[in-house]
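hey so u asked for the seq, here:
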Amino acid sequence: MPGLLRGIARTAIIAGTASSVAGRVQRHQARKFADRDAETAADRERAYEEQMAPQGGYGEPAPPPPAPAATGQADMISQLKQLAELRDQGILTDDEFAAQKAKILG
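ran it, structure tokens below
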């Protein structure tokens, strides 16, 4: 009988030690994952704040776009003539000319 009790005691000690070690490992992993999750959340928050910063931040409306300069009819015609000259000289392509023309004409 003493051999049987010794075996039971040894098994209990081994099981207790294994349980203790497993508990420590589990707590360590939980701490590690919590730290990692906190870092991920902080990174996402920073990225969101950086993304929102150029738009005026939280609750602030974005600044209005600048108003187009008031151009008279004569000014538009002179700009179109300059663009046509640049296109004729080969400085601007037809696509670039069309884009600038559309920009001038609104």
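The chain is about 75% helix and 0% strand. Helices lie at 2-52, 73-88, 94-105.
lmk if thats what u needed
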